[in-house]
Amino acid sequence: MTEKHLSAHARPRSVRSHLGVAHVEARHDEEFTVVGNHLAQHPDLSLTAIGLATHIQSLPDGALVGIKVLAAKFPEGETRIASALRELEKHGYLSRTKERLPSGRIITRTTSYNKPRKHASRAIAPAPRPAQTPDPKEPEHPAPPAPDLPAHRTARAVLAGLHARDPRLHLAERDLRRLIPAVVTWLERGVTPDDVQRTLAAGLPREGVRHPAGFLAHRLTALLPPAVTPFEPDRPPAHPAPLQTCDGCDRAFRSPTPGRCRDCRHPAREAA
Q: Domain spanning 37-126: which CATH class is it, in words?
């Protein structure tokens, strides 16, 4: 019996599960970003955080990655993006360090890490300043001039009653005092207390409100109605002078007082 020899090695058959994912992989020669499986398959990060980290790692140095900038690009909204950024900070993929400039302005410097690191301190790093330069102070929220006025008491009741509409909007006493002036502004612009509560509590994000005071402060500023200018109707036209009978020619003419008409007062015109 003749032994059969094959001219080529048989190709192994790939076994594909009907339940799992199949990959079609193409080689990237340009415009690509390497992402580690430690991030792509992170067991504790949300999908929003993983996707956001991947996006940030694909950006060039100097690109803006603030919450408002990212919310303008993606549909998740500021609340979910802020939560995802905090996740990335917690797990070492991002650090946000506050720094005070010589002008006194505080900026946030963001650093992205393609491998996780320990959480960096977020303490404010003061920039060197010339000697004998006064230390600029942060602007403080103005306190209400008279907290016992009826408008301030109404504003306090509006804020304190928000938790009855949604328990997530419970506020501490210091937050009440800070937000009262903003609510007073709404009341002064003709918005009823019930409408203020309804506007502030409407459409809360599904993932919840982690910082009720900051959330409400944003809404009180962003949704502030315009000031209403009192409507002043047009003045009615002046009534014409009553008709008078001329004492000289018995003709009718308009004048506030009886007397002679223009022609009788100026006979030279009639002669001319």
A: mainly alpha
